[in-house]
Amino acid sequence: MLKRLSLRFSAAAVSALFVIELIMILMINGLNFYYSVRQTDETLSALLEGDGSFANSRDDFRPDSKPDRAPDDGNGLWRFGDERADKEMRYMTRYFTAAINTEGSVVTLDTGHIASVSSDEAERYALDVLAGNKQKGFYDGMAFRWAMRKYADGSKLAVFCDFTVPMQDLRRVAFLSAEISAGLLVVFSMMIILVSRRVVRPVIENSEKQAQFITDAGHELKTPLAIIRANTEVIEMTSGETEWTRSTIHQTDRLSDLLGRMLMLAKSRESQRFSFEDVDLSALAKDTAGHFETYCTAENKPLKADIAEGVHVSGDPKMLDMLMSSLLENAVKYGITGEQTVFALTVSSKHARITVENLCEDPPQGDLSRLFDRFYRADTSRTRETGGSGIGLSLAKTITDAHGGKITCETEGKKVRFTVRLRLA
């Protein structure tokens, strides 16, 4: 149990860490991409405003000339108007421009600021983006970022900035962030695995102490209950049966049954005590149905069994018998007199499915998963009449969980259906 819980804790912690790192990688690279595009767009805007060249970047540019534009808000992007950035911008940016007349023809090309694009290619690029009827976008995958300006006379200017270097930087950051995150995930996973047993050990010890307390208390209470019942029977033999003696015997029987179920539940919580083997579930289900057939007939709730042949699972036969018995007992206890109780075993490609179905005058409502909580009873008044303790379904769920299965409850009108799914052997 310690090993299994430790593995679950480790898996949950590593999964949470993986999700956090994934979100961080996406955020870092997403913001990096956004600011790279924004920086390039600001460069394009400056080129368009300068009619294809940077403001204050004329041929007679002098190092001591002062820019006319004021700095921006200092967001870390290209700050046109910043003296140093303005001086270096014309040498750092790889771009070309294309002037387009009102008839849609390229009349002027400037490819002097880029080495990888010829005049013919530049003209073709410009005509392609012109046909798309957009004002801004990427071209040739993400090789170029372009923008277009339309003048009052209907002519246009298209500017293409090379986006190859920013893309290389983006890929480098993405690769490094993924590599660092993977390394941290491995390191933290090893640390989590090393400390997981120490973390979950108090939980295991507390659970074991609870189970031991229930076991000890149950065994201690069995003897006084037996004595109370025996003394009451002696009183009946000497003084005759009364409503008080009948009530005392009935309540001691209920308490004895409750103690037995509590002890079984405490034992079933520790699945390592189960004796797992290959179980012929078909034969086991037939035996269980046979044992309940007389009981169902006596309660006028006839049992209809539909058991598939040759179904095998890996499990503890005693616990699986108790699982099916708990579901059948619950169905007979709360079923409508005169109506059938249906017990079926079917098989799919990977799972065996146990189904117990009955009609109920007052079917449970709301969150049906609470039916499997210990001591939970949907209708306490009816439970007092039937003598239920609220442990049977909890025991069924505990056994199902120990076998790696799943148990569910569904209602449809007055029909109540419990389904258990177990992996085939």
Q: What are the SSEs and their pairings?
A:
Blueprint: H1 2-49, H2 83-92, E1 95-100, E2 106-113, H3 119-131, E3 136-139, E4 144-150, E5 156-162, H4 164-239, H5 243-268, E6 277-280, H6 281-298, E7 303-307, E8 312-315, H7 317-334, E9 341-347, E10 351-359, H8 380-386, H9 392-402, E11 406-412, E12 415-423
Parallel strand pairs: 7-9
Antiparallel strand pairs: 1-2, 1-5, 3-4, 4-5, 6-8, 9-10, 10-12, 11-12
Report on this model:
The chain is α+β, with helices and mostly antiparallel strands and 425 residues long. Helix content is 53%, strand content 18%. It has nine helices and twelve strands. The strands form three sheets. A five-stranded antiparallel sheet has the order 2-1-5-4-3, with helices on both faces. Helix 1 runs antiparallel to helix 4 and helix 6 runs parallel beside helix 7. The longest helix is centred in the middle third of the chain and has 76 residues. The radius of gyration is 39 Å and the shape is elongated. The chain starts with a helix and ends with a strand.
Q: Give the helix tally.
A: 9
Provide the β-strand percentage band. 15-25%
Distance between the amino and carboxyl termini: 22 Å
Structural class: alpha+beta
What number is the mean pLDDT?
A: 82
* Spatial strand arrangement across the major sheet: 2-1-5-4-3
What value does the Rg take, in angstroms? 39 Å
- Largest sheet composition: 5 strands, antiparallel
Instruction: Give the overall silhouette.
Output: elongated
Give unreliable regions as ranges.
57-81, 380-389
Helix residue percentage: 40-55%
Q: Characterize the quaternary organization of these chains.
A: single chain
H and E order: HHEEHEEEHHEHEEHEEHHEE
Number of strands: 12
